[in-house]
Design a protein that fits this description.
Strand content: 15-25%
Largest sheet: 10 strands, mixed
Radius of gyration: 23 Å
Structural class: alpha+beta
Distance between the termini: 38 Å
Shape: globular
Number of helices: 17
Number of strands: 18
Helix content: 25-40%
Length: about 575
């Protein structure tokens, strides 16, 4: 699939075409689930429109642990169907987007103090036989993945653990294993799925908010949409509305005037970002096998950084997710329990939080950490179809089930085209990777930048062409991170980046990886965006000021929760 422009011009044209021509399926929500529905529906031949009130992946889809996994913690809950589904989807993603979803090992230590590692429901007397119980679970995990497995688990010696995870405590270590899942860049994945949808004819627009629906005979006849950039209003005739708004799904249902048909229970997950050297991480991730509330914690290498998470707490402001002092203390407490390298708040580069859209029965009182991620496709008021639940890994299956539901209702044939549909950038990605690696010395691209550009797949060739035309675009955005200025131009032209926050927070992830969250780089990045988006000097300055204010508010909030003044170096961000 060619790398076609997806810029501010295509965005306006998409809204105008949706209004003028109407669509068969109108998707509300530009996170990974909505993007997946748009791909599936467009690939089956439906006329598809998708709108997102903010930026693509601006909510939960940019706040994940960035893992594509089966959910090993669901095995002790006997949710074998969910684990099997997720493992199959993991395998399909590794196959259909190999440049973006790649296997990663997880070191799993077992200590004498662990009573229920991985949440095991069985507690052998004196812990005797626990290793065999865990190994049986890992074997089942491998078996459930079937032909789409990545690698088999194996037992590790104490020496191997010391080499692979030098900071793990070895005192009281009874056994250890390594098993395999996969890792991705969640915002790059969402952007890639959006591009795939557009490549199959879907009309997509971010910063376009649904404000209401026009009803005819108790059914939705059209969606009312406001362009949040221009203030223009559109009436978009539609056949079926798909509500893929995640934790905001209830709000979209409410716009029909009917009663919501399902209750979405938001569960907040918090992560910390620290320097990779602080925990001496190698290429493999680490699983902390047991927490005080029966969860797992992952320590996952991410370039020059490490991601640690996640928590699981109920309640809070879903529009402004933030890590609290208690959230940070919870994570650090468990790091200290299992890791011998000291880690303090001074080591934290950023904290970030998001809400998972878990499905809860109105009669259930189960804690959110015990809820299954199984998704639900339901008929909502006005003929709307709502898709809720699930997780990043299973987005394709969620989309498939949603479009199947619509097809059955309309008497259309069922065709599961996305099972073997490569995502945009897959065709020719190996050749492009070799081309980028070969050109790297000419433009001074360091190895970490070359690895970063691999995540664009074949589209990395477009970025290389931008550098060839203007070598200054090979400059780094932040000195110690792999992102380069050419990516800024690319995201404006090909990924519908419209604000400075779109680029620094989601497209490049500078916000949570840089000590200053991109404040120093903001003017230079805004200057490049101004050329692409037609900003004048006043708008460019406003973008910089607004971004710095956003970072400053987050910094002040985190410092206040810790009872400390905000630090000049801005070393935490919630």
């Amino acid at each position: 699939m060619a790398t076609e422009p997806l810029s501010i011009a295509e965005r306006v044209a998409a809204l105008e075409r949706m209004a003028a021509e109407g669509v068969d399926i109108f998707v509300v929500g530009g996170g990974i689930t909505g993007a997946g529905v748009a791909v599936d529906a467009a690939a089956r031949g439906y006329r598809v429109g998708l709108v997102e009130k903010g930026d693509f992946a601006g909510g939960t889809s940019s706040k994940s642990t960035k893992l594509v996994h089966g959910g090993i913690r669901y095995l002790p809950q006997y949710d074998f169907a969910l684990v099997r589904e997720a493992l199959v989807e993991r395998g399909l993603l590794v196959r259909n987007a190999p440049f973006l979803v790649q296997p990663i090992g997880f070191v799993l230590p077992l200590y004498a103090e662990n009573k229920r590692p991985l949440g095991t429901p069985i507690v052998p007397p004196g812990g005797i036989g626990m290793s065999y119980l865990i190994q049986s679970g890992l074997l089942l995990y491998d078996i459930l993945s079937g032909r789409l497995g990545v690698r088999r688990h194996r037992r590790l010696s104490k020496r191997a653990v010391e080499q692979m995870a030098p900071c793990l405590k070895t005192e009281g270590l009874n056994d250890a294993f390594i098993y395999y899942d996969a890792q991705t860049d969640d915002t790059r994945l969402t952007a890639t799925v959006i591009r795939t949808a557009a490549g199959h004819g879907a009309l997509v627009a971010n910063y376009a908010e649904v404000t209401g629906f026009d009803m005819e005979n108790d059914r939705i006849a059209a969606a009312r949409v406001r362009d949040r950039m221009t203030g223009a209003d559109y009436r978009i005739p539609t056949g079926t509305v798909v509500n893929a708004a995640g934790v905001w799904a209830g709000r979209i249902e409410a716009l029909t005037g009917g009663e919501p048909q399902i209750h979405v229970e938001p569960a907040k997950g918090v992560h910390l970002t620290v320097p990779r050297a602080a925990l001496k991480m190698g290429k493999d991730a680490i699983v902390l096998p047991e927490t005080e509330d029966g969860r797992l914690l992952f320590i996952v290498p991410w370039g020059a950084r490490v991601t640690i998470g996640t928590t699981d707490t109920e309640g809070g402001d879903i529009d402004r997710p933030a890590a609290t002092e208690d959230d940070v203390a919870y994570i650090l407490r468990h790091i200290h329990r299992y890791m011998q390298c000291p880690l303090t708040e001074a080591d934290i580069i950023s904290t970030w939080a998001g809400y998972r859209p878990l499905v809860r029965s109105t009669k259930s009182a189960a804690a959110s950490s015990k809820l299954s991620r199984t998704h639900a496709v339901i008929d909502s008021p006005g003929g709307m179809v709502t898709i809720v639940g699930g997780k990043l890994t299973t987005y394709r299956r969620m989309a498939q089930d949603t479009v199947d539901h619509i097809s059955r209702k309309q008497g259309d044939p069922i065709a599961h085209v996305t099972e073997r549909l490569p995502l945009a950038g897959t065709a020719g990605w190996k050749e492009t990777a070799r081309r980028v690696a070969g050109a790297a010395p000419r433009y001074g691209l360091r190895p970490d930048t070359v690895r970063r550009l691999d995540r664009y797949g074949a589209a990395a060739g477009v970025i290389l062409d931008l550098i060839a035309a203007d070598p200054a675009l090979a400059a780094r955005v932040v000195p110690d991170l792999p992102y380069i200025m050419a990516e800024v131009v690319y995201t404006c032209r090909y990924e519908m980046a419209l604000t400075l926050d779109d680029v620094l927070d989601r497209r490049l992830r500078v916000d949570f990886e840089a000590w200053d969250h991109g404040s120093v780089a903001a003017p230079a990045v805004a200057g490049l965006m101004a050329r692409e988006l037609g900003w004048d000097a006043a708008e460019t300055a406003r973008q910089v000021a607004e971004y710095r204010e956003l970072v400053g508010r987050s910094e002040a909030g985190k410092a206040a929760s810790a009872g400390e003044p905000a630090l000049d170096r801005q070393d935490t961000h919630s």
